[in-house]
Amino acid sequence: MLIEGTNYIGYSTSARGSEKFQAFSPSGNSFLPGDFTYATNEEFELTVALAEKAFANYKEISAKEKAIFLEAIAEEIMALGDALIERCVAESALPVARITGERGRTCGQLKMFAQLLREGWWVDARIDTAQPDRQPVPKSDIRRMLIPVGPVAVFGASNFPLAFSTAGGDTASALAAGCPVIVKAHPSHPGTHELVSKAIIKAAQRTEMPEGVFSSLYLSNEQSIQLVQHTVIKAVGFTGSRHVGMLLYKAAAERTEPIPVYAEMSSTNPIILMEGVLKTQPEKIAKELTASVNLGVGQFCTNPGLVFAIESDATSAFLKEFSNQFSSSTPGTMLNRNICSSYTKGANILSNTDGINILAKASKTAAGERYEASPLAFTVSSKDFVANEQLANEVFGPLTLIVLCKNAEELHRTLLSLEGQLTATLHSTAEDEQALKPVIDIITQKAGRIIFGGYPTGVEVCHSMHHGGPFPSTSDARYTSVGTAAIYRFVRPICLQDFPNHLLPEALQNHNPLNIIRLVDGQWTKEVIAG
Amino acid sequence: MLIEGTNYIGYSTSARGSEKFQAFSPSGNSFLPGDFTYATNEEFELTVALAEKAFANYKEISAKEKAIFLEAIAEEIMALGDALIERCVAESALPVARITGERGRTCGQLKMFAQLLREGWWVDARIDTAQPDRQPVPKSDIRRMLIPVGPVAVFGASNFPLAFSTAGGDTASALAAGCPVIVKAHPSHPGTHELVSKAIIKAAQRTEMPEGVFSSLYLSNEQSIQLVQHTVIKAVGFTGSRHVGMLLYKAAAERTEPIPVYAEMSSTNPIILMEGVLKTQPEKIAKELTASVNLGVGQFCTNPGLVFAIESDATSAFLKEFSNQFSSSTPGTMLNRNICSSYTKGANILSNTDGINILAKASKTAAGERYEASPLAFTVSSKDFVANEQLANEVFGPLTLIVLCKNAEELHRTLLSLEGQLTATLHSTAEDEQALKPVIDIITQKAGRIIFGGYPTGVEVCHSMHHGGPFPSTSDARYTSVGTAAIYRFVRPICLQDFPNHLLPEALQNHNPLNIIRLVDGQWTKEVIAG
Question: What is the pLDDT of residue A2?
Fold first, then answer.
């Protein structure tokens, strides 16, 4: 499939600019075919104007039609066939099986939001009926539901070139909410981005969506800031580093009109190993933890970068077992050159920090020419850990730091010192239960998701998933970027008072034509309202 | 009742500072008894530390106990009796009947949140049960609910000394959510604030709440910024001017950890009068609109400051009728000296702006020594209105500007030029319906609440109320400051994966001990889960 390298502005392709770049294959240590052209400022403005115009029409399109559009995107992505998989593998160095799975997840998310639109209850309809005879003043009829906020800017992730990128969760949830999307293409996988952009646009045309419901651009850093600050943009979705996420957040805070910035940034995803589990299942934990740290060359936002345990004989035995297991890890090519050099730098800093001990490393040497990362496991005392706040920072890659505490009190204090996390994980047995309760209490304040006896990698896409958490794991702990609740990032309530029934949106009409559950006079019900 | 003028730090009173101020009665043009002492920095830090400590305990207290606490606050406020009413009337110049009604609303809000806590469904429990046999990977058991964010700073309003102040909607919803509250006392009604603070603390002690669940301080502007920027504070509620609201918003944006700032600021609450209603009900509309503009000397955030109509004979006849009605308005004392001087300044600017015509004014002269505002109604062409964006700014007080449009297209364009609003109001008859639809479409994008055939003043406190809207009416259009949904400002989701049933919070346990509606495997149900 020919790579054109153009911007996708509504239904047109456009490449009027002179600045270009190429995609790079880290595993092949070579540039890939295709010249990608940065958008000019005129192209940028045209795109934003189209999104604004599209919003006026797109928000009026029925939920059913939007659902068909989302499903069509999934179909068109599948229709790209092996060309998508091949390009994505070349650009990301992720294996075929992983990318194939990620494509399935991406299409699954689109279909999940289509299903949510068909069910319709997500608009959170609330109705308080009139009481004309109430004293001292009559009560009005008041009805409330959620509506889309307007055009959304999406900044995709390097580590999920499909599921958190061009047609990923942010795009799917924004389109489901009724918001046009402008995607800033990730320079780490522009060819993948181009193929997916084409699929979305084909789906939009096929299902007769308004032009501008989706556009995508290659943008400079400066233009990225301009996008976040543009008056037409009403929300921002971002997945990436803390540094860039906070740049976008700060840029948005400078706007006249504040808008929400949903930045999913950095998390070390602490794992807490309780005494009982270390005594009874050291081999199992050592093996599973090694696998979780190394999954996808450690390039997950939920990668377990910190492990906590209280010193004991069982802990010493576990560390030995873990060291053995971990030494069999193998180096792997990272997503791109920047990520690889950041990893190497972070690993070197840790290796040369007083108090940090190397517990295990891969026996095989990482191949620099393939931008490989060498898995590393360290230990540190909780005293040294707390004294040097740099140690709590995320090192993105297959690296974990085991923090050894003297006793329960030190464990609690050390956990209290942590910043906010996407996840925290507990491993314990029944005998740990009393000791576990204060730990749960502390990490509930620190994390968005707590996993009992499992691993944080592998995020289920469902209604009850919360993939978010206190800062710096995200910029807004109230919202998730995974699961159906992700749609709430791109909506706001509208309240309609004393409206004639026929002028109300269907979700709020008396006879409940959508057959959705609603809060009517304080009761959740699907019943119709006499009127 | 003796006014002590101290800060309320947990269960202690404290006035170590040397800077003091007095309350002023605008209607009496005199200072009121009591010296109020600004907090020292030590007192400030002690208060914040107490709030942090209280959070650890308060969040664990059962919903039922929190409900009893909220109800006890309402009881203690009522127990203040006439002393509260008298002081509040003296400080605000609002009439006894209004303050008595506002006290009822304040207590009603507290009881409403108590009821919400007893019902329990507001935690938005979502459960996806495990599928251990799912291929290719087993599905975990995942459960999600809302939990409190932490200590909240509340900045009350001048124009609702009870319902939007010390024990107002922000405090009630934050306490209901499980968050300790620190109130920054409003200098316009410090005596009222002191009495209500005492009532809250009495209720907290009587119901054995942790010390620090509520504190209140007299703060300098600099300390107010410090409060918003303090690491312990996790959210801010504010009601007041756009200028101050945005100062707090910008201060929060400078924090390392972003937190939500819910600032309810400025709104001109456009009223759109369609041809049919002007033809058939000119007298009724003229009378009602006059009353709405003058209600509470125009000092409501929902005061109708802009009116839109298309020029016609009916419009001319209406303007004449409105002018007659409005001329019978009488001046009234404003809430405080600053508000009065701002009103006079804003009114003078409008009076001297080219293209603005005075349509009506009160025949009686405003008494400067009683800080009265003189009601004013102006007209302007939509052309002149759009050309001068200053004209769209809120002038807080009994003033309205009627914008006359040449035709429907000009009406639409003018409405499109407006900033975000708390409310918009439509007056129309059946014959207007075709012309009304594009108007509804435009104002849905501009406002948080749309009133059909009524007036924006008078905000019902209920489940479906949305008192919020696009910027600058608020800093966060996703949230309301009135009604049960106000609780969502102070919570975030927590997700628990594969937890043993007995370690789950009650809201998420299999047997549904709270008997709340939950989203279980995609179905909203109160059913128990087999487990």
Answer: 84
B328, burial (CB in 10 Å: exposed 0-12, middle 13-18, buried 19+): middle
* pLDDT value for A363: 87
Assess B280–A contact: CB distance below 8 Å, yes or no.
no
What are the start-end ranges of the E strands in A51-141? 126-128
Long-range CB contact pairs, B342-345, < 8 A, 24+: B342/B396, B343/B373, B343/B395, B343/B396, B343/B397, B343/B399, B344/B373
CA distance A500 to B438: 16
d(CA B367, CA B374): 9
Strand-pair category, B271-273 with B421-427: parallel
The first and second tokens of residue A302, run together, are 């939920």
Answer yes or no: do A524 and B503 touch at CB < 8 A: no
Kindly give the parts of chain A with pLDDT less than 70. Answer: 1
Contacts with B121 from chain A: Cβ below 8 Å: 524
pLDDT band of residue B458 (cuts 50, 70, 90) is confident
pLDDT of residue B175 exceeding 70, the answer is: yes
Edge-to-edge strands, sheet with B152-155: B12-14, B7-9, B214-217, B181-184, B152-155, B235-239, B261-264
Three-state DSSP state, B217: strand
- Among residues B385, B410, B391, the alpha carbon closest in space to that of B312 is found at B410
Please indicate if any CB of chain B lies within 8 Å of the CB of A406: no
Task: Tell me the nearest-neighbour CA distance from B353 into chain A, angstroms.
Answer: 26
Check CB contact under 8 Å for A470 and B492.
Answer: yes
DSSP-derived secondary structure for B231-274: TT--EEEEES-HHHHHHHHHHHHTSSS---EEEE------EEE-
Which residue in B185, B172, B177, B182 sits closest to B151, CA to CA? B182
CB of A493 within 8 Å of a chain B CB? The answer is yes
| CA-only gyration radius of chain A, Å | 25
Taking CB atoms and an 8 Å limit, are A494 and B444 in contact across chains? yes
What value does the mean pLDDT take over residues B286-300? Answer: 96
Q: Which of A116, A92, A121, A88 is nearest to A104 (CA)?
A: A88
pLDDT at B1: 67
Q: Which regions of B140-228 does DSSP assign to beta strands (E)? A: 142-148, 152-155, 181-184, 214-217
Peptide bond into B470 cis (omega under 30): no
Do A182 and A148 touch, CB atoms closer than 8 A? Answer: no
Kind and range of the H or E run holding A44: helix A41-58
Secondary-structure breakdown of chain B: helix, strand, coil percentages, each rounded to the nearest 5:
40, 20, 40
Query: Is A301 a known active-site residue?
Result: yes
From the candidates B301, B340, B394, B405, give the one annotated as an active-site residue.
Answer: B301
The whole-number pLDDT of residue A458 equals 86
Residues 305-324, chain B, touching A (beta carbon < 8 A): none
Which two structure tokens, joined as six digits, stand for A436?
């576990």
Is the minimum CB–CB distance between B250 and chain A shorter than 8 Å?
Answer: yes
Partners of residue B448 in chain A, C-beta under 8 Å: 492-495
B121 touches chain A (CB under 8 A): yes
Mutation target for B interface from A238, A243, A495: give the one with most B CBs within 10 A: A495
The DSSP bridge partners found for residue B155 are B184, B238
Nearest-CA residue of chain A relative to B142? A464
Average pLDDT for residues B510-531, to the nearest whole number?
Answer: 96
* Backbone angles phi and psi of B192, in degrees to 5: -60, -45
Q: Do A452 and B497 touch (CB under 8 A)?
A: yes
For helices A242-253 and A221-229, the axis angle rounded to 10 degrees is 40
Tell me which chain A residues have a C-beta less than 8 angstroms from the C-beta of B498.
451-454
**Whether B394 is catalytic:** no
CB pairs under 8 A between A and B: 183
- Which of residues 148 through 207 in chain B touch A, CB cutoff 8 A? 149-150
Does the ipTM exceed 0.90?
Answer: yes
